[in-house]
Design goal:
The structure is a homotetramer. Chain A is of the alpha+beta class. Chain A folds into 3 domains: 3-240, Hypothetical protein af1432 (Orthogonal Bundle); 243-327, Up-down Bundle (Growth Hormone, Chain: A); 329-383 and 406-449, Growth Hormone, Chain: A (Up-down Bundle). Chain A has 22 helices and 11 strands. In chain A, the strands form 4 sheets. A 4-stranded mixed sheet of chain A has the order 3-4-7-8. In chain A, strand 7 (384-386) and strand 8 form a beta hairpin. In chain A, helix 4 packs across helix 8 and helix 18 (341-350) runs antiparallel to helix 22. Chains in contact: A-B, A-C, A-D, B-C, B-D, C-D. The interface between A and C is medium-sized, with 28 and 28 residues.
Amino acid sequence: MPYQAERLPREKVLRDPVHNYIYIEYRLIMDLINTREFQRLRRIKQLGTASLVFHGAEHTRFTHSLGVYEITRQICDNFQRNFPTHTPGDGLWDDNERLVALCAALLHDIGHGPYSHTFEHIFKTDHEAITVAILTSPDTEVNQVLRSVSPEFPAQVASVIQKTYPNPQVVQMISSQIDADRMDYLLRDAYHTGTKYGTFDLTRILRVMRPYQDGIAFEISGMHAVEDYIMSRFQMYQQIYFHPVSRAMEVILSHLLQRAKEDYESPEAVNEAAAPYLLFPFFKHEFNLEDYLLLDDGTLTTYFAHWRQSSDPILADLSHRFLDRKPLKSVKFDEQSKAKLPELRQLIEKAGFNAEYYTDTNNSYDLPYDAYDPKMKKPLTQIELMQSDGQLVELSTVSALVSAITGKFSGDRRFFFPKEMLQPQSGNIELFDPIYESFQQHLHNDYII
Amino acid sequence: MPYQAERLPREKVLRDPVHNYIYIEYRLIMDLINTREFQRLRRIKQLGTASLVFHGAEHTRFTHSLGVYEITRQICDNFQRNFPTHTPGDGLWDDNERLVALCAALLHDIGHGPYSHTFEHIFKTDHEAITVAILTSPDTEVNQVLRSVSPEFPAQVASVIQKTYPNPQVVQMISSQIDADRMDYLLRDAYHTGTKYGTFDLTRILRVMRPYQDGIAFEISGMHAVEDYIMSRFQMYQQIYFHPVSRAMEVILSHLLQRAKEDYESPEAVNEAAAPYLLFPFFKHEFNLEDYLLLDDGTLTTYFAHWRQSSDPILADLSHRFLDRKPLKSVKFDEQSKAKLPELRQLIEKAGFNAEYYTDTNNSYDLPYDAYDPKMKKPLTQIELMQSDGQLVELSTVSALVSAITGKFSGDRRFFFPKEMLQPQSGNIELFDPIYESFQQHLHNDYII
Amino acid sequence: MPYQAERLPREKVLRDPVHNYIYIEYRLIMDLINTREFQRLRRIKQLGTASLVFHGAEHTRFTHSLGVYEITRQICDNFQRNFPTHTPGDGLWDDNERLVALCAALLHDIGHGPYSHTFEHIFKTDHEAITVAILTSPDTEVNQVLRSVSPEFPAQVASVIQKTYPNPQVVQMISSQIDADRMDYLLRDAYHTGTKYGTFDLTRILRVMRPYQDGIAFEISGMHAVEDYIMSRFQMYQQIYFHPVSRAMEVILSHLLQRAKEDYESPEAVNEAAAPYLLFPFFKHEFNLEDYLLLDDGTLTTYFAHWRQSSDPILADLSHRFLDRKPLKSVKFDEQSKAKLPELRQLIEKAGFNAEYYTDTNNSYDLPYDAYDPKMKKPLTQIELMQSDGQLVELSTVSALVSAITGKFSGDRRFFFPKEMLQPQSGNIELFDPIYESFQQHLHNDYII
Amino acid sequence: MPYQAERLPREKVLRDPVHNYIYIEYRLIMDLINTREFQRLRRIKQLGTASLVFHGAEHTRFTHSLGVYEITRQICDNFQRNFPTHTPGDGLWDDNERLVALCAALLHDIGHGPYSHTFEHIFKTDHEAITVAILTSPDTEVNQVLRSVSPEFPAQVASVIQKTYPNPQVVQMISSQIDADRMDYLLRDAYHTGTKYGTFDLTRILRVMRPYQDGIAFEISGMHAVEDYIMSRFQMYQQIYFHPVSRAMEVILSHLLQRAKEDYESPEAVNEAAAPYLLFPFFKHEFNLEDYLLLDDGTLTTYFAHWRQSSDPILADLSHRFLDRKPLKSVKFDEQSKAKLPELRQLIEKAGFNAEYYTDTNNSYDLPYDAYDPKMKKPLTQIELMQSDGQLVELSTVSALVSAITGKFSGDRRFFFPKEMLQPQSGNIELFDPIYESFQQHLHNDYII
């Protein structure tokens, strides 16, 4: 039997709190899960600093990746049962696409590293490029497993993730405005945070999904379920992903890594005991795939534990603030009140903080949904509803709710600063009092005025 | 206002997936949560290697500690509302005990380190002693916060955890056969693993709990709820905590730490780059509290990542097996088949494995419930049911189910060995075939025969 | 102790699937639950014909009424703990209002009869007037219990339900755009139907509710939770309450009761055996409160069981269709296609159906949310959010989502007709074929064209 | 296409709170659901008087029957996917048995009437015989649908329910100690009561079920899941099904029907207006199937509403007690204290109650599990576990927990009496005081002493 068709002697299951069980039928999938690169995802949190706000949300990218696989598997099962292709090009589902879809689903996040967003920003890495490298580089275990299917298979799986794979149904399963990836993370993040906002009716959405010539559409009878999913997604962004305290911890992390990079760029630093050897390639921007694969959340926090005893007081303090969860405070500002930022930064400097490391601004904006627009840099695949006569209509044209948020960015701009500006430490109150007062006069109702 | 009575301006809540919200009314509790020692628990998994079997169970001791606090808070609320003391010694609830109970609940696990069970075994640490040290040593932030209540307060909280506190109601809230600790971990571990076994009716149990002279009793009308809790606990042990693959990963971890200790005991080891500085005090068994507090799960796995490139092939291989999740296989044995172990170990050596590092035996036995027995080393506090006339009866005398498991240990003894003994690697099949065959003939129906 | 302050010797609880437990502290509440009029609600389904579509939704108004009581109790607890009044008129919560609020919550639906909406329409009853009558008429057990508090108490409770009670906080708890009534039915109907749409974060909403001078406001930090509630409500209307098959069964019920009324208006009808004695007062529109209280869902279906053997073929057939769940079919129409209705009705007559009893139109429109508008017949109490400086803002001015649906009715207009028009019965196909064909040509994509 | 193989154009789903969706693939199943006899189950509560204690439990036999169908469907799917027969007699699953299994599952309760247990006892009906009659009598719609498969099909389906069908796999799916019927009602009753006791891991049990020569076995790896199911069942009996208040309401119902039967046996009764025509055939014990099918819960309560105005004070009072939920009180007794019952009855008579109608004894005993015993009147099918070598072991031989309750009846014997004996009504206190005192002296700790 060719490897790709080889089934496990008995279907295997992994217990999962969101999907109850993850079902694994193919040896190929089991082998991918058992690779070193995939197991590494167990040590990288899905939500990064948000777990410092929602303490239950300590789940990892490993868990999420299995969930995306499982949803994709269910979509394939449903398509094969209800919409199997009869003749090539009839717009129905060709089950020969199943394996490439399942592998792309499982591996779509394999290139993520610790606290990806911040890490990438400081060290100029790119998790998407690394994902492709892990799939296609002959040195990885993942590549070795994929190659057993065929020499072209690794590149095919990569092309699904890169959205260049010829079959749009497969691409849209994994990445579109309503795909297996988003559906899993919304449900999973809601489950582990304990919030209710991310809940939508997965079973119903899966039931109304159907393949068509140009991708995946949704039967119009399921319009409200799709609408409800869009709303859930919107709420999760507003309530969880954009939480100001989570962003405040990200600011600290970012400044901490930046500071370390600067510190270690001077050669004498390297000689000290307990040096962050695993980060050196990144400080020098001379890393290879193997260097990258040695990193995980624990690597960073281990170095932070070293650094909290550093002779650089800023590095030590930021390490302490991150490890011991001392978030910066924040307020919103707008185009007009933005002009006040320099003045606020000056006051903060006067109070004894290096404004470069202890303040920041951060915009969190999400586009909850948009129709296809060829003028966009990355045009989105719009959500299509299929009427009983087979005609498609775009979601926002029939849903007043979705229409209300279509194409509109939602989020806020925040200025971050040390908590001490609001709660002066005892000991120096008299000295700094006027500074604090001036500072606080600029804040009202969570806004800079 | 004295510090201990100081309430937050507005009750604070933390979102929790198990209890919905954790309610915090006292500044003291908030300050304890914000200590460095408590925040460190965010980096120590509650279930250790079991998260390698139940992938959703990535929650930490931080989360669990908050849950134990919350259950204790609810018990205090209930006692104060329904059973407030009128005269000293009347066996009812004295709400002055609330703070000591809440602090003990929150801090009962503060001395845990990474993969505690295994770590303690190899490095001769003792998490209970360390808990007491963290509470009572003047250098910790926790001690500093507790001292603000009164100079004796740290020792009082410690004595609750050590079970020497004079009020048995407070002690039994935190540790007895049905306490806030167990109730939280059963519910939480069930939630995150996604299993149903740990579910019992917490609200009902809290409702039938009541203080009496010698501790805490349960109204007899709630007998079945208590019974159901005992059964849930039994099932969680059988299904989750004793899972053979989780124990197999623990065996690897244990041998890995043992090997590292032996390797680094030779002085030349210390000079190599990327040395495990944070572990040195433990290798030498000369650690202090500060050394201990720098460790977490990530520290260990970071060193394992270093070691996977070690020149010691056993250290490198065990590091790889742990990080990449390559569990040993196992079978059960009994007193009789135990005699076969030397022969099995010999075959394993013949197949090329160092039996000291690649095999082990492990017993997992739990006492699901027992009545008080003064002859035991650590006599258990039995569960008392209160009848409508106020008389107490011990649980197992009225519950046939509980009686069936009272005083009976349940679990198994397993022999662990490399998976390769069952699935020979290609390349050397011919050579080793007879060895594998001999080995496998000793196994039948998951037992050594 | 005055009756109103009399507490049960021990707080009593009723197990509830939505709120876990319903807590009862006052004897007054227990006595009200035990009245004949309240127990009667056990025999009246909450969702009427919707239970014929969502088979799990067989819960009753009894259950819902307890839930509204419980939410109100929690609101009072929260208000009393966090916002107790200090001086009269300070806009905070006066806990002397608790009892009137709890009673109004418990009794707000006590005047409902079987399949209220339809029954009222045919027999010109008015459940709100009957609610007031049950509370204030000296003959009811409810009135007797309420009178024990004070002679004015029954009228006070009634005035809360009538929205004329002077304290707007109490009124808004029970009836406003986000009140205990709506919050309970959304959660409960979602639970029993098994749909996910009605889920919102009750605990969070209760946490951000607060009394103010003119009623109840919500802290702005909870804006998204309120928004999510509005969305849930919207979805429940679209998906559950407006379900076309549920409305189709209501059409049958309505025509069936209408037909019975007409049949029994002729005096000879009364003489037949198994006459619907309990309905006579309603046929004659000469009913009193006692007559009304004898009715429940089972009374109606018992008479339908009699009538399925009636000599009036239309009465018999409609009874059969209702009891055996044979819904009419339906399609949407709009202002333009409305002109086709006479033609469709003619075709239906030609196919042998009396169009008066076998067709109907039905509009289902809901106003998901609106701001206060003094020009409306019944102006709505708008949802106010309180900023950190105490200023109020109306919800739709800060929520883009809510703004999108504010003041906009949502729903559809449907034309109902016999299923036989789409699925001709065997036996008469040839004869009627051209009729069916003509009929079906008017339908496309669930619309009349 | 033969009718039995005819699939719906698109698989239909019914939303279900327990199983999420009920999936219907065959036209045959849809047609059975649409029969009059099956729709009638919508008007018969699953739990009878227990809904008067657990107010959420208002679900019906209709809902449960769909659930049993769904579980059976999942078992068949699993068997067909994993254990399809290769050669006749190989002990594996023959999917030609699917339809008979599905129909038997759906229809197994079709013969139930209102408050079956009590009704049967008073009127000597037999729901199992009626089930067979509904399946096999040519007059029913169910029979007509089943006959479309083949002339023998109705009798085949009946034989599964009667346990005489030749294939033991099919029989055990529907009735054994762990069958689709029990699994559905435990989960469903737990869901609607809101209790946690009935929860067990359905998915896991379905996964370890497998066909073998003599029926259905469970893989030994699932032993604890089966054990947990047995414990859940045990708890549900103790906590829900045997609840004393539910049994107290059953006692009232029973005496009420008995009294009505006696009253209406005298011919003059029949002439009164509002006579209970639908019950006459049962009063006279001359009923036919059509008479039986006209009854439902609402029929009985409608007559009770008539009777509460009856001239027979006992009939009127018992009707009032049932409709308005005024349960009798009860205490436990044993073989010894049984001797006190006559004395207690005398005191009750002295207090003015007819002991025949106002007192009763009731035993509730359940056999939670037993091994097969050929000496029993109806020997039970024991639960078999399959080891990895294919050998079977009986559950209680490997489970200490199950062994503890195997073959042991659990439950209690209670004596029921009017609540007034404990809470004298005002007005007659002086007169009856000594009677009440004597009575109460016999009760202690919920027992007769």
